Amino acid sequence: MxxxxxxxxxxxxxxxxFFRAGQDAAGRWxxxxxxxxxxxxxxAHGVQSTPDTGGSTDPAMDPAARLRRWGFNAVGAGGDGAxxxxxxxxxxxxxxxxxxxxxxxxxxxxxxxxxxDWPRLAAARAAEACPSLAAARDLLGWVTDDxxxxxxxxxxxxxxxxxxxxxxxxAFAAYHAAWEFALALHGGRLETLARAWGVPLANKEVVRxxxxxxxxxGTRGYLRDDARWSREFARRYFTSTAAAIRAVDPNHxxxxxxxxxxxxxxxxxxxxYPAVDVTLCDWTELPVHATGAPRGGAGPAAGxxxxxxxxxxxxxxxxxxxxxxxxxxxxxxxxxxxxxERMLRRGRTALERMARHPAVAGYVWRQWLDEPxxxxxxxxxxxxxxxxxxxxxxxxxxxxxxxxxxxxCAALDPIFL
Length: 417
What we know:
By secondary structure, this protein is of the alpha/beta class.
């Protein structure tokens, strides 16, 4: 395995003596630990020490002990400090949503980065959150916000980010910026904008009414402008938050935010170096080729990235109506589309491909505990809410974690060349 001196010096990011990122001679990206040794990150989000275990004090149920037993070497965002207080490397969250006005809507929770006072507010938030860990050598790096939500367009028809901003109250700077942005693309006239979007807009209030009714605009013309707006929003967000962090902590890596799911090409195009050192992108949006050519036009640049929200159960619980035919026992009015064996087989294949991906410097499992209402074996936590480990996930991950470094050092998969 490569050592610090064998990494291409021009690719190194971060301060010596702390966690850094760098590319080896073969083109693979790695994290480097404070001693300069390659570190393939194997982490989980939301690690906590208080599941409903009936007061059990069994040392085997301690989160740090479990993580180490399963081969994890870090904890991600969220949680209650379990793991990080026991010597594992960890991520810390600045929580910039606590700075200034926050845009809140279904699928969206973002700071108003168009507020003229936003850079000062962001700097103040970083000055409050970051200095206490600026010298911490077990800190992997900073996450700007935990799952803020970027209001992406989906087939469900929920309003996306541009529509959300066009529907804000005038007290938000983003409201005025969004209308100026949209109108400027169409000669400054609402009727021209309406024609381009293929949407009847007698006045601006029509957009707000549709948003209140959760009727998303989904025409080709609108989505083109929404992608441009999302990218501009992301540019302001990532550059300002990174600058605020580095002003008070120049030692640690910046990961950008923890995305709640896929966000599309526009947002990811701005969540890259130099604003972000290592992109914590959803694992479904990894770049396909080492050159950075992405799947379907989405994905960050060639690297480095951490594959975030890893969880094969997400696909396993996709649903269809009961009328589609008989199937396994239903939950919540849906039926399972896959078997446990198929789910785990796909998960193993995806993990091994991920380990060989030259841009991927590690991964983070989606969540520590099952969400309320989730039922094994298709729940998404490593630990069930009664404190019992989710063996269907933990055993597969333990096997992968034991082999991850060897897989990482194997010959590159031709698909990435």
